[in-house]
Design brief:
two-stranded antiparallel sheet, 9% strand, 70 residues, single chain, mainly alpha
Length: 70
């Protein structure tokens, strides 16, 4: 059974950049533009979720050397 690999934040950003180029080109139909927009919004949410997970994992070393979650 194949495991679906989750895209990295960098891969997701690259995909968003491609969508932006397509939208800015002016060559897409209105329907295609809406689809690109919808896909882009899903990608933004995915990035936000990934960034939130990373922020929750950040550990700060306090002055006394103990670790604490941010």
């Amino acid at each position: 059974m194949a495991v679906k690999k989750e895209k990295t934040i960098e891969e997701t950003f690259a995909e968003m950049e491609e969508l932006i180029k397509k939208l800015e080109s002016g060559e897409s139909s209105l329907e295609e533009s809406f689809q690109y927009y919808e896909t882009g919004m899903k990608l933004v949410k995915s990035c936000n979720d990934k960034i939130d997970k990373v922020e929750k994992k950040i550990i700060v070393l306090e002055d006394d050397g103990e670790k604490s979650e941010l």
